[in-house]
Amino acid sequence: METTHLGKSSALPASPSEATLNYVPNPRPGDLYLVRFAAPEFTSLCPVTGQPDFAHIVIDYAPGETIVESKSLKLFLGAFRNHCGFHEDVTVGIGKRLFDEMKPRWLRIGGYWYPRGGMPIDVFWQSAAPPQDLWLPDQGVQPYRGRG
Q1: Structural domain 34-126, CATH architecture
Q2: What's residue 148's pLDDT?
Q3: Which of 32, 55, 89, 108 is the most buried (most CB within 10 A)?
Q4: Considering 46, 84, 89, 122, which one is annotated as catalytic?
Q5: pTM of the prediction?
């Protein structure tokens, strides 16, 4: 198992494209199960104004032969804080990179973006229909309610 960050001091990558995601062997390769990562304080930058955008990101996946190493995922997500991108591109881009590199049986991502300009934007992507018999809990993020 070769990892770049695990057990080592690691600086935050300058950009998502420079971030290295590490994958390790799935400890339960024959089992169908769900892994969830939540990043409730995710940030990126608006590509037009350069102002910060905030989101609660939830990533669910059913592992194939590998799983993503969590420290490398944390650093990858942190690299977006200086990255300019529309909510749709950022959310779908994270999901597709994980899916393309890790090759899970199934993956979905929910980007629950906080409003800027008065309108929240929620973005969802999944690789395909979920495998039969995979337990899919609700992502647990409430719709934005403002002050109410």
Answers
A1: 2-Layer Sandwich (3.30)
A2: 56
A3: 55
A4: 46
A5: 0.94
Residue 1 pLDDT level (bands cut at 50, 70, 90): low
Map out the domains of the chain as residue ranges: 34-126
To the query of whether residue 53 is one of the catalytic residues in this protein, the response is: yes
Stretch among 23-32, 119-128, 138-147 having the lowest mean pLDDT: 138-147
Q: What does the pLDDT read at residue 8?
A: 78
86-92, Cβ contacts within 8 angstroms, sequence gap of 24 or more: 86/46, 86/47, 87/53, 87/55, 87/111, 87/113, 87/121, 87/123, 88/121, 88/123, 90/44, 90/55, 91/55, 91/57, 91/123, 91/124, 91/125, 92/123, 92/125
88 is in an annotated binding site: yes
